[in-house]
Amino acid sequence: MDLAPIVMFTFNRLEHTKKTIEALKKNNFAKESEIFIFSDGPRNEQEKLKVNEVRKFINNIDGFKNVTVSESEVNKGLANSVINGVTKIINEYGKIIVLEDDLVTSKYFLEYMNKALNLYKSRKDIWSISGYTPNIEIQREYKDEVYLIKRGASWGWATWKDRWKLNDWDVNDYVEFKKNKKMVREFNLSGSDMAPMLNDQMEGRINSWAIRWGYNQFRQNMWTVYPVKAFIKNIGTDLSGTHSAMTNKYDVDLSERMVELNLNIKPNDEIRIAFKRKYDLNILGYVAIGIKKIGLYKEARSLRNKLIKLFK
Q: Could you list the residue ranges that cross the membrane (predicted)?
């Protein structure tokens, strides 16, 4: 099989990084795969020690065909790190599998991703492959082991060069989009959090590559292939990361077998509705949007996280 390179992004979480690598090493095809690890630089002097601990570990990784580590002297932030790192590797290899440092994989993750990349390459309506799926209700009549959603997942994913190059990271048509209520409603068909996140991005309240990637997928009218059973589990929802939050809403059990892929998979509206419910904003989500708009989100989030840690 023609295996895609793995690209992993790390920062300052040694224990999470160790768990991610150890799980990945147990994967079928790990020993035959190349892995490129991008280590972002510290934001301040206090972070140097943690970043250096991670770098000491990743520079001594084995269990793969080849390990290449790129260390940044400055802090690029996750968005710039992902956009630049993925672009560099995908331009050379034509396809890519992407992980961050807080994702534990099923032993079948690499097999699933590589087989899906090879199978769905010919389908130009497929934007990406997701290794993660939220726990959603799948009707008994649904016989396939994958499904389609017009929203990508940033927790373990894969794509091809010809799709990646379609991204407009500046979102040059945002003003036009924002004024078009029909388009906004359609963008939110895979979760009412989508348009508010894009708005936060364009107004400078967040710095996310993923929401821009999701918007470009929407504009291209393309699908992401999801497994019915997850091959990825996020262990970063413990307040340890820059963008993490304490929640078990997206917790999953990992698949213990490979799934059967269907080249001619078609969208299912009942699954889309169940998926949308998982990502729709609740009352706290709308409150958070309001807090962001008045510029107090970081303070409110910091207080919330302190209270969660206090009462754990």
A: none
